[in-house]
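## tool: complex_structure
## caller: assistant
## args:
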Amino acid sequence: MSQPRKVYGLGAEFDSAASLMAAAEKIRDTGFAHWDVHTPFPIHGMDKAMGLGKSKLSAAVFVGGLMGLLTGVLLVTIPSFVLYPIIVHGKPYNWATAPAFFPIIFELTVLFSAFTAVGTMFAMNQLPRLNHPVFNWDRFKRFTDDGFLMVIEARDAKFSESRTKALLEEIGGKNVTLIHD
Amino acid sequence: MSHPTENSTLSAEQFDPALGKKLSSLGFGVSALGLVISAIGFMTSREQFAFSWLFGFMLVFTLCAGALFWTVLHHATDSEWGILVRRQMENVAGILPVLGLFFLPLILFCAPILWKWWDVAPGVDPLLDAKSAFLNHTFFSLRYVLYFGGLGWVAMVLSKRSVAQDADGAAKHTFAMRKAAIIGLPVFAVCLTFAAVDWLMGLDYHWFSTMWGVYIFAGAAGSSMSLLVLIVTGLRRNGYLKAVTTEHYHVMGKFMLTFVVFWAYIGYSQYMLIWYANIPEETIYFKIRNTESWHYLSTFLVLGRFFIPFPFLLFQSTKKNPKILCGVASWIIFMQIVDIYVIVLPSLHQTGFSPSVFDLASLAAVGGAAAGLYFRRLSASCTFPKRDPRLAGSVNLHN
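## result:
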């Protein structure tokens, strides 16, 4: 316990959603890259205030869906057209039979998209994990109740214990605390 | 959220009455031309006229009914995003009561041509006898009155209240419209479903499909949202509705995507069930439309109504681009024309695709009159509900 612990970052509390939003805009404009805000509820426009841009998740889901589509097409066409071309119900085994295949192709597209969405979301959020350094900050639990919090990570190139602390206080941050790993 | 009166960027605006009158006259002019040609058709080839007129009428009817659906949905779900563009939906839906008149020639002079059950005597066809409680002249005519009464009433209440709110800005109108919309939702659903059953499914009274009402609804809602995109863009280009942003286009694009997919889902489900079960009474619909030259049109419908617009609407960047979205919207409306055509005309020309000048004439007659009425309504009130208490929320829309 006596060993000096690594600094994870700086945490600051704000009075309201509006003041947190204003603070986020300033931090964004200062050029910080590794930071986040924690609030009891989603705040509309916060993504813009933080400069997050469009999530890359949709691109991954698109590729996942495309893979599902391809899997579906191959899964139904290879057995029906190549391996076991059998006439069922008087329906021919050429492209005109496609309606019978659509449910499988459709379901696989949806299934693969969903798996990719959940999997990519976990990967992007670095989940699952058992603990996170922010929990070492005693006031952090307030974000589930009435706390509007901001945490700037020490790994950010612009981070400096004293100057970032001063910056956070200047933009309205209260109880600015050093968080250790 | 700021109060709308504090919003200095947004001032009440009215469509130029002179231009509105000009466009309105143009619409009525086109309609008159279409009416004259249709009248010739009525005299010379009654059969072709009947089917052409039904085609033209149903196309405009689905577009207007779709607009009513979006208005009703907007109020019933208490939406905020579309307040800015809501007035235009109301204007299109407001055509409905007058549109009912365009159905009269069919019911008065062409009923036995279109709906073959009309002249079949009792006892001749046991299938018809079983349905005679529903398919008889009195009830059919009564239903026609109920459809336009019901849809027209909902459209008029919502439109009148909305315009009344322009004058006093009272919140009670918002609550009244919500109430009317909640009653209006089932009214709309029942009227559109049974209108589709009566007028289109009834073209072959042996045939039935439980998905028919939903199928017509899917086409109506999707093409109507496309029409809204075109109207809003047209107004913006002329200097109105400047408060509409890419965010609004994004929402409208999302609804277009929804209904492109929904149309395909319903259309496919209907086809698949009939195709798989292979019961002659049911397959006859697709047998006519998937053979001879109708086959090309049916294939084109599947490709054009779903596979072509789908990839365009899938991406956020294209939905936020008014130019691309307008292109897709025009295409969807064109495909709605094809859809109604492939539903109506094969009942007459069972041996193959046979275009007629009266198809275009009916389209001009009904469509032109609807456009004329629309422009008249457009310049009669502010282009958006200027004193809706939640207008600011719609102006500052963020997805």
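## assistant note: The two ends of chain A are 12 Å apart (CA to CA). The mean pLDDT of chain A is 90. Handing back to user.
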